[in-house]
Amino acid sequence: MGRILKYGFTQDFITNMDSYLVSFMDLTGQVQDLISNNMVKATDTQLVNDIRQMNSFGNFENMQKAMQQQFHTIMDQQFQQFSMEEAMKMVTPFDHGGYLMGPGFNPSDTMAFNAQQEMTNQMNIMNDMMNQMNMMNDMMNQMDMMNDMMNQMDMMNQMNTMNGMNSNNHFGV
């Protein structure tokens, strides 16, 4: 409630600043007259000059800027506090005062869960395909090795056949 009143006062002050300025300047003149009539001349001059300097339009403008800055600072602090509280609720379990979250309760959580499930399914399908391709490659490699072995056996048979022919050939002996 205090924040609302403070905000309302600040907004009223900002919107009615011209009328406040006139009232402020009028009050300043009255205070200066009162002080100059009741003070000793020696101290009166210095005090009146200090008051005039403090209450000049420039300082009123500075006061206005300071109040606006303070208003913005308060609003920023309130927003930061709100953000921190919301962030804490986001990570706090429901049983301890946090938000009820998860698939099925909140549309964004449900969408994120579904997207994660879909990605997991796609990755599993890709892994299965890669495993099948690896098995095919292994089978192809085994077939190549068997072909190489068969070629080597054929070459050995040919060499044995040639050796056998050479040993049976006795040209004139």
- Share of residues in strands: under 5%
Q: What is the number of strand segments?
A: 0
Number of separate helices: 5
Average pLDDT, to the nearest integer?
76
Largest β sheet strand count, sense and barrel closure: none
Q: Give the tally of structural domains.
A: 2
**Contiguous runs where pLDDT drops below 50 for at least 5 residues:** none
What structural class do helix, strand and pairing data support?
mainly alpha
SSE order in H/E notation? HHHHH
Oligomer: single chain
Estimate percent helicity.
over 70%
End-to-end Cα distance: 130 Å
Assign an overall shape. Answer: rod-shaped
| Rg measurement, Å | 48 Å
Give structural notes.
The chain has 173 residues and is mainly alpha-helical. The chain folds into two domains: 2-99, no CATH class; 115-167. It has helices spanning 2-15, 17-38, 41-54, 57-91, 107-168. The radius of gyration is 48 Å and the shape is rod-shaped. The chain starts with a helix and ends in a 5-residue tail after the last helix.
